[in-house]
Each structure stands twice: as C-alpha cells, then as structure tokens.
Write a structure and sequence with these properties.
Elements (H helix, E strand, L loop, with lengths): L6 E9 L4 E6 L2 E6 L6 E9 L3 E11 L25 H19 L21 E8 L5 E6 L6 E3 L8 H17 L13 E8 L6 E7 L7 H8 L8 E6 L11 E7 L6
Parallel strand pairs: 3-5, 10-11
Antiparallel strand pairs: 1-2, 1-4, 2-3, 4-5, 6-7, 6-9, 7-8, 9-10, 11-12
Length: 267
C-alpha cells in the first residue's frame, strides 16, 4: 500500500477534465497535475485515499510527445488554467474523447461525433476576469489569481487569456493602490476595504467595465482612479462600485453604484 511521501514511477495513461494525469502503481491509481498522456514520471505521493491517491511531479523521466512548454510564466502556480503544458491539438483530442465517453458510459448513447472544431484564437479570447487583491509576504499590494486549491494570490497582472486592455487597467489600479494606501481585504479577519477587481469587455464594441468590490460603502480617492482610467490609455466605459460586506468567498455583493459612465456595457 502506498504511503504519503513515497516516490514512485508511473506512466500517465489518461487525463481528467481538471487537467490531472492518471497513472497506476501496482494497480493503485494516482492523479498527478501537469502531466500528459505518455509521460513517464517520477512522482511524490502527497495524499492517499482508499481507492486512489494524488501525487506531484518530482522528475519527468521521458516526456510525452504532446508535452509543450507553457507560454504563461505562472501557469504551474496559478489555478486559472489546466492545459498549457500540452499541445492544443492534444487538448482538442481530449475534449472530444471526454464528450464521447460521457455519452457512452453515462448516457448509454453511441454516436459518431462531428469533427472537433478548433478555435482560431488560442490567446486573449476571454472577455471577463475576476482578480482577488491582497498583500504579499512583504506587505505589498498584489493582484492576480488564486493558486490551485487555495486562496493564496499568485501575482498575474497579465493573463494571456485576457485582453491586453485588462493589463492596462490593472497596472493603473496597482499604482493607484500604492499611492492611495487603500486597505486590502483579509478574508481571515474580514478586515480591509478592496476585495476584488471585476473586469468585463464587449468583444465587438470594446466597451470596458471596471467593477471594484469593496467591504464597505465607499471608496476613498475614487476620483483620482477614475481620471486615470478614463484619460485615453484604456478607454474605460464604466466604473462601478460593488458592496460586499459578507464574510466568505462569494465575490459580488447585491448592491452596485455607478461611479462613472453607465450601469451596463453592450456587445
């Protein structure tokens, strides 16, 4: 029986929709993030349950032919993506396989699926992002995304799946935070003001909305921020203040106030 911290060698034979590779050691299934079908890997066991366990890569002995170098520098720490480490062609193959498997295994339906249609745009295709804010270990403001299975914020001001305009907005807000000394939210103590930055952009209209989620009723120095967001560098159409004073990890509260522009954008 495997134990936590055991070091084993497995061949990855499948991958889950969460991006965890699946391999077996003496018939015992191990789920390992950031692995690809065909990898031969040395794996450290991190958790053992009754019928399966979880591991992490210690060393790739022989890489899969579908393995690629992730384009994002924080991919392995950030919890936002699951498949940057495999080729796009392999990702398409896997997704078609999952659909076919669900239809057959769960639904009992046997169909010949139409060919999978790949996207012509593999980066910068999203139009919405939610960025938590907080402090790093040095007490400096940090904006980014949560690490996998945690609420530790990984700095990621430029996400390759988001439009470049989002990066411009975040750079302006980051500088404003340092200058204004706005307090940032700590979910453990339920203190601090700014909780999240919520951005959305119309794909065709390019209208850009900035929503600041706060643990309170107002935002000091908001006028300065609005002037910088609307000076032509990123052409923001609307700035909203969302009130969320509830503890917990629900991002948006139920009250919004327009600070600039209009209460909605069009696409």
């Amino acid at each position: 029986m495997l134990q936590k911290n055991d070091l084993v060698t497995i061949e990855v034979t499948d991958i889950t929709s969460e991006g965890n590779g699946v391999g077996h050691h003496q018939g015992f299934a191990l789920f390992v993030p950031n692995t690809a079908v065909g990898d031969l890997a040395e794996v450290r066991v991190v958790k053992v349950l009754k019928n399966y366990g979880f591991g992490k890569i210690e060393r790739i002995i022989s890489p899969s032919a579908t393995r690629v170098e992730p384009a994002c520098p924080v991919y392995r720490q950030c919890g936002g993506c699951s498949f940057w480490h495999i080729s796009y062609e392999e990702e398409c193959r896997l997704k078609q396989h999952w659909i076919q498997d669900c239809l057959q295994r769960i639904g009992g339906i046997n169909l010949d699926l139409e060919p999978f249609s790949p996207s012509p745009q593999r980066q910068r295709y999203r139009n919405k992002a939610q960025y938590p804010v907080g402090y790093n270990k040095d007490g400096q403001p940090v904006i980014g995304f949560y690490a996998k299975r945690s609420h530790r914020i990984i700095p990621a001001e430029d996400c390759l799946l988001q439009p470049e305009s989002f990066t411009q907005v975040l750079n302006i807000i980051a500088l404003w935070l340092k200058e204004s000394k706005i307090s940032l939210y700590d979910e453990k103590t339920h203190t601090g003001l700014l909780r999240h930055i919520y951005l959305r952009q119309g794909r065709e209209t390019k209208e850009l909305m900035v929503c600041l989620v706060v643990n309170g009723d107002s935002l000091p120095c908001a006028d300065l921020l609005i002037r910088r967001l609307t000076d032509g560098r990123c052409d923001v159409s609307a700035v909203l203040l969302n009130r969320n004073t509830r503890p917990g990890n629900v991002i948006l509260g139920d009250r919004c106030k327009v600070l600039y522009g209009k209460p909605s954008i069009e696409d």
